[in-house]
Design a protein that fits this description.
This protein is α+β, with helices and mostly antiparallel strands. It has six helices and eleven strands.
Length: 273
């Protein structure tokens, strides 16, 4: 018996390890299956949303990448003014990164997020995935370290994404944590979309030096002194930057929170007119 017990213990540990690795892959596959099934009849969609008091529009079109559907951002506007486009897939970034997610994540059991049971995927090397926070201050660069993705056990959609890394402010690295909560999922022509997204970044206070803060506050004073029509025009033209500036200046405990609420989703109606 003394010789059998160590072997039995080793087999149990090995089986548990293999089960965890398999579970991580199964979670991602199930999430992908749900997304691709819902997206089958969707060729494009337009999201009208409110971000910190401003109304914005984002138009996405389906394209196939490595045999899988993703939705690429084709146009974006805030307050009626066009915004700069990045290689943005919106919340579907996590689906586009599925092969890397399966390879570089491990299963972390189940937890509760906003009252829903979720499966936890732990990412020890976030740099291996093409995922990053959606909101960072201008003139900074985020260097990812590790993260977690929380997948709803019933809807099979991401409920929360957490990213930890260093923010390069141009000579100094500041540790920041970004938490993205995807809430109020609704069915639009079979595709589940989050109607409320809350992004919080902690640690940004250390990234704002006194000189930068003074410049931002001075800019705010100058804007306040402009005639109402001119001020409204400037705020519309530079809405995205204004939002970040105000959020940074009003941040408490070094954090910045941005909330996005979807007002309307138009599916398969083509680009905005």
């Amino acid at each position: 018996m003394k010789r059998i017990l160590p072997v039995a213990g080793l087999l149990v540990a090995l089986s548990a390890s293999l089960a965890s690795a398999q579970t991580s892959t199964e979670i991602v596959d199930r999430m992908l299956e749900t997304f691709e099934s819902g997206a089958a009849s969707v060729e494009n969609y337009l999201v009208v949303q409110e971000v910190m008091g401003f109304e914005s529009e984002m138009y996405f079109e389906k394209e196939i990448r490595e045999g899988r559907p993703v939705f690429q951002l084709r146009s974006s506007s805030t307050g009626g003014f066009a915004s700069d486009l990045d290689d943005d897939l919106g919340y579907t970034d996590v689906y586009a990164a599925a092969p890397e997610l399966k390879e570089h994540s491990r299963y972390g059991g189940t937890e509760q997020v906003d009252g829903s049971e979720v499966h936890v995927l732990i990412i020890d090397d976030l740099a291996a995935l093409d995922l990053a926070p959606t909101t960072t201050p201008e003139d900074t660069e985020f260097h990812p370290r590790n993260g977690r993705i929380y997948v709803d056990s019933e809807l099979w959609v991401p409920r929360r994404m957490e990213f930890v890394g260093d923010l390069d402010t141009g000579g100094e690295l500041v540790e920041v944590t970004s938490v993205i909560d995807l809430q109020d999922y609704r069915d639009d022509e079979g595709m589940l979309l989050p109607y409320r997204t809350v992004v919080r970044m902690d640690g940004l206070g250390a990234a704002i030096d006194p000189e930068m803060r003074a410049e931002l506050e001075d800019l705010q004073r100058q804007l306040a002194e402009l005639p109402e029509e001119q001020r409204a025009m400037v705020e519309q033209m530079f809405a995205g930057r204004m939002e970040q500036m105000e959020a940074l200046l009003e941040a408490e405990n070094g954090g910045m929170t941005v909330e996005m609420t979807v007002l309307e989703v138009r599916v398969n109606e083509g680009p905005p007119r």
